[in-house]
Amino acid sequence: MPRNPDKxxxxxxxxxxxxxxxxxxxxxxxxxxxxxxxxxxxxxxxxRTKKFEQQSxxxxxxxxxxxxxxxxxxxxxxxGGACHALSITWITEHAHGRSIWPWLQCSCGDILSGPAxxxxxxxxxxxxxxxxxxxxxxxxxxSKSHWQKMIFNFYGMxxxxxxxxxxYEASITFQNNPIKQNLDHLLSEIFNTTDHYxxxxxxxxxxxxxxxxxxxxxxxxxFDPEIGEFWFPSKDGFTEWFYEYWKKxxxxxxxxxxxxxxxxxxxxx
Length: 269
Known about the structure:
This protein is an alpha+beta fold.
């Protein structure tokens, strides 16, 4: 989010109505899935550190009330969610020693319209909508991976490990193997290095996707915009919980998904 006064805001909110008086939701009542996974986290030595749900399927409350309304989105698009922008923002805040939550929500739990406008602008730029910055990447194409690098670099984040100037995102596609075998393969890619942030995008065969973010160090933190933020003291407990998370939160919609994995470190604090 734009907290560095020495840099120009890379995602202008001018596209969106500036209704600062409008508190857009009172949705921080955790859903059944989040509660179930919170119970599982406790079982494996972790905990849910934040209740959150972006309400992407709700046209009246939550952030869905904005990005499901064509009048509030550039070019009158109707989006499936804002998970990509939320996940990137979570990483950039966490990496600089800040929490996203005091910025995103007021004390009563409502999401504020100013931050919501920023998230929607960032999501719009990820789609190449109403953002001139994509012109810079005309030669390479305005792919999400190049956009991600531009946004992360703006906030002092660099790819880890830096494989090459543009080749830094690994991809994995699940095969017709037992689900645990597929998940173990995915986790081995995530945990083959340490002390970094992970942005994990995944898509089903119809190209419907979702995005989550993680911290991997001595402890593990996962943020899913649909269910909240979860913490584990080690990867062992997290791994057991992740099996449950995938089966209960993702498996129905992502049977043989393709994952795009990028890792990030902070250049400055």
